[in-house]
Amino acid sequence: MKHAATPPRKPLPAGIAKVLKRLHYPLEVMLQCVRWYVAYSLSSRDLEEMMAERGVAVDHSTIHRWVIKLLPVFEKAIRRRLRPVGESWRMDETYIRVRGQWKYLYRAVDKAGHTIDFLLCARRDTAAARRFFEKAIAGRGTPKTVTVDKSGANRAALQALGAQRETPIEIRQNKYLNNLVEQDHRAIKRRVRPMLGFQNFRCARIVLGGIEAMHMIRKGQMFAPKGRRASPA
Fold first, then answer.
1. pLDDT at 60 over 90
2. Distance CA 60, CA 51 (A)
3. Choice among 67-71, 83-87, 162-166, 215-219 with the minimum mean pLDDT
4. Extended beta strands in the chain, E state
5. What is the DSSP code (8-state) at residue 39?
C-alpha cells in the first residue's frame, strides 16, 4: 500500500534563514525552547533538563543563545499579526533590574487591557517617556486620551507631542484608572522574577520583548485562523 508523500516544507523567509544559519539543531526544538523560556517560569537550565528527558542533548548556554537570536524575529512576526487597539490608553512604568541597577520598563494598555506597546529605558524622564509615546503611536496609531500617574515627565512628554498635532491628545492623571496597567505589570514581573535580573541592557530588551509578545498572545491580541485561538505553547 502506497503512503501519501509528505509535502515539502515551505522555504523559510530570508531573515529567519539568516538567523538560523549557524544554529545546528532542528528548528522545532529551538522554537519550542524559546517559546517556553518566555512563556513560562523556566530557566535555561530547566529547559536543558526537559530536553534531555526528550532525548535532546543541549547545553543551557546554547538555549540562551537561541533566545537572543530568535526572539527579535519572533517578536517582529507577532507584531505584524496584532489586532487593533482602543484609543483610550493607560500608561505607566515599572522597574526591571539590569546588572544590579534599576531600569524602567514603560508600558501602556487600552481600556480593555490589551497591550499597546512597551519600551525599556535606562532613565525615567521626559525624553524616555517621549521615546515611548513616539514608538507606540508609530506602531499603534494616535490615542484620543492617555491616562498617566502623577509623573510630571509623562505629562510633559504628551504635551510636547500634542503641541505638534492639530488635535491634542487628552491627558488624564487618575490613579484609579491607571490600576489596569499596574495590574498588567504583574504578568511581566512574575516571569522576570525567577531570572534574578539581566546581565546587560541589550539582552534585557530582547527577552522582555519576547515576554511581552507572549503576554499579548495570551490576551488574544494576535489574529488566528477562524475558530482557533493563538497559544504560547
1. yes
2. 10
3. 162-166
4. 88-98, 101-110, 115-121, 145-148, 170-173
5. H
**Angle at alpha carbon of residue 130, lines to 126 and 136, rounded to 5°:** 150
As given in the structure block, the three cell numbers for residue 154 are 509623562
pLDDT surpassing 60 at residue 97: yes
- Alpha carbon distance 151, 153 (integer Å): 5
Domain boundaries along the sequence of the chain = 22-80, 88-200
* Per-residue pLDDT at 58: 94
Are 147 and 116 in contact by the 8 Å Cβ rule? The answer is no
Q: What is the pTM of this model?
A: 0.87
Name the CATH superfamily, with its identifier, for domain 88-200. Ribonuclease H-like superfamily/Ribonuclease H (3.30.420.10)
All three cell numbers of 118: 512597551
Question: Rounded to 5 degrees, what are φ and ψ at 87?
Answer: -100, 5
For residue 64, the model assigns a pLDDT of: 93
- Taking the C-alpha atoms of residue 188 and residue 183, their distance in angstroms, rounded to an integer, is 10
Buried b (16+ CB within 10 A) or exposed e, 170-200: eeeeeeeebebbeebbebbeebbeebeebee
Backbone angles phi, psi at 4, to 5 degrees: -65, 140
